[in-house]
From TrEMBL:
The gene is alr. One of its GO terms (cellular component) is cytosol. The active site is at 42 (proton acceptor), 260 (proton acceptor). It comes from Deinococcus arcticus. The lineage of its organism: Bacteria, Thermotogati, Deinococcota, Deinococci, Deinococcales. Its EC number is 5.1.1.1. One of its GO terms (biological process) is D-alanine biosynthetic process. Residues 239-363 form the Alanine racemase C-terminal domain. PANTHER family: ALANINE RACEMASE, ALANINE RACEMASE, CATABOLIC-RELATED. This is Alanine racemase.
Length: 363
């Protein structure tokens, strides 16, 4: 049989998604939390690919549902028909409430006006602001909103968000939990137990199982990352490996500079590979001067300023051809944590910045 021809238009960059790593992370986090997971897949599943991650996660026995930040994300998930509840975590515009309810999307509610505006077939999750000061009803107001939702038969869940659960000092997170539990104790009994969720990844890793919680909501941790002081709590594996192709090879002669601004000058003749990925694809421009990549299994420095669509690498002494894959980060050797540190940012920002020119492939 003749081998399949390569695609006419080859990907310049790809994000390889380890399905086994994602499944193992979900299993470990659910065990740590003592609860099923409401997996955040907002921001294109933290850059990993909304549909790709959702399809891998949906059949997992540790998963209850999927959480998103925008109505567009909610509609996209609903269209996949994966058979798992979709929870919108941030408020929709008034005209979006009906169509979202029609799709079965669980809706956030934080005021009596919002509670009254819901159609009769909606399912609501009461959002309580316990100290994040971003969204939700204050504890002194949340009880009345929850009671009205319960009277209308619409209250399915109650949630809050920790502001400091991933910090070494957990004292404010404990205070938030105390405030949240005060609201929960004042809510009426509903025909079905309320789905209560508060623990983000930091809380799952810091506290384990929290009393009264029916779900846990770890975000970045599900994709394999934890603060340094919490890494021993649960074994996690980064899900994404980012690679890009060598698109050009040439020699920079001694004394010549590479890239914008002439920041790097060749001390000797240097074999240079141009790689088809740059800050336009999410690689941080701020990593200029520090970044390294893996070429044929070896760490090699990125030369000069990182460009929008490309970056240049010293490949002297290596057997490299146009079309070869270069690894920018993965589960070991060079990680997103390394790249974030070089760029003066955090893993969240690097991962969610991975652009649409990067093809996602599930392994």
């Amino acid at each position: 049989m003749r081998p399949a021809s390569p695609p006419l238009l080859a990907a310049r960059a790809r994000a390889l998604l380890g399905a086994g790593a994602l499944r193992a992370n979900l299993r470990a986090l659910s065990a740590r939390a003592g609860a099923p997971l409401l997996l955040p897949v907002k921001a294109n599943a933290y850059g990993h690919g909304l549909s790709e991650v959702a399809r891998v996660a949906a059949p997992h026995p540790a998963l209850w549902g999927l959480a998103v930040a925008t109505p567009q994300e909610a509609a996209a998930l609903a269209a996949l028909g994966l058979g798992r509840p979709v929870v919108l975590l941030t408020p929709p515009m008034p005209h979006e409430v009906g169509p979202l309810a029609d799709l079965g999307v669980r809706l956030p509610v934080a005021s009596l006006a919002e509670a009254e505006a819901l159609p009769g077939h909606a399912r609501a999750h009461l959002k309580v602001d316990t100290g994040m000061n971003r969204l939700g009803a204050r504890p002194e107001d949340a009880v009345a909103v929850g009671r009205r939702l319960a009277q209308r038969g619409l209250l399915e869940g109650v949630y809050t968000h920790f502001a400091t659960a991933d910090e070494p000092d957990p004292s404010f997170a404990h205070e938030q939990l105390r405030r949240f539990q005060g609201v929960l104790s004042a809510l009426p009994v509903t025909p079905e137990p309320l789905l209560v969720h508060a623990a983000n990844g930091g809380a799952v890793l810091s506290f384990g199982a929290l009393p009264g919680m029916g779900l846990a909501r770890p975000g970045l941790a599900a994709y394999g990352f934890a603060p340094a002081h919490l890494r021993a709590a649960v074994p996690l594996t980064p899900v994404m490996t980012l690679q890009a192709r060598v698109t050009h090879l040439h020699t920079a002669r001694a004394g010549e500079t590479v890239s914008y601004g002439g920041l790097w000058r060749a001390a000797q003749d240097t074999r240079v590979a141009t790689v088809g990925l740059g800050y336009g694809d999410g690689y941080p421009r701020g990593a200029t001067g520090q970044a390294q990549v893996l070429v044929a299994g070896e760490r090699r420095p990125v030369l000069g300023r990182i460009c929008m669509d490309q970056l240049m690498v010293d490949v002297s002494g290596l057997n490299v051809q146009v079309g070869d894959w270069v690894t920018l980060w993965g589960p070991q050797d060079i990680t997103v944590t390394d790249v974030a540190a070089w760029g003066g940012t955090v893993e969240y920002e690097v991962l969610t910045g991975v652009g649409m020119r990067v093809e996602r492939e599930v392994e």
